[in-house]
Amino acid sequence: DSGVTQTPKHLITATGQRVTLRCSPRSGDLSVYWYQQSLDQGLQFLIQYYNGEERAKGNILERFSAQQFPDLHSELNLSSLELGDSALYFCASKKDQQETQYFGPGTRLLVL
Amino acid sequence: AQSVTQLGSHVSVSEGALVLLRCNYSSSVPPYLFWYVQYPNQGLQLLLKYTSAATLVKGINGFEAEFKKSETSFHLTKPSAHMSDAAEYFCAVSEAQNFGNEKLTFGTGTRLTIIP
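YS: structure for the whole thing
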């Protein structure tokens, strides 16, 4: 158990819909990262938040957005969903001045 | 820019045999390097990491890796494979001391199968 929690574990929805994925980082971790794992793209960095502020962006679609709240939990919002958005979405967290990102169990999204 | 190449998307070894999973990286600045393991239907678990200290790094479950700057490699080894090692293994790189931009760039993964 990494100490990072993600909800829900599984999500099935239809094209065009909007979903929200939630991540709670390890205690004391100010940085939260979101990654997408898909069969065709592999593991890709989406976005990083640090203490409530966006810090870095990767290959994140405009239909996707994220935020980090004062209690440091983060949400990834996916809208106008397409079949190709079906993937495993991971959240990771990290402490300042340390190198290791600790990953949550992921949310498996299936868009039908 | 940084990138990771993992040679061999599938590797099969017999139980008790040497495990060797290959990883080559590219980075314009000194890298941090990581190996993560993913068991079926689970998240990513850190096996070991290189952060510019010792070039031979020991991790959990008997795995180790050696950082070779001249070869830009960070291959993962284990002397004797166990059935429980069957999983997918990912090599990843981040930019050392680039605080504020510590994203991980992953390789495409290597699925390790252990033959009884």
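YS: worth flagging: The two ends of chain B are 41 Å apart (CA to CA).
IM: good catch. Also The mean pLDDT of chain B is 92.
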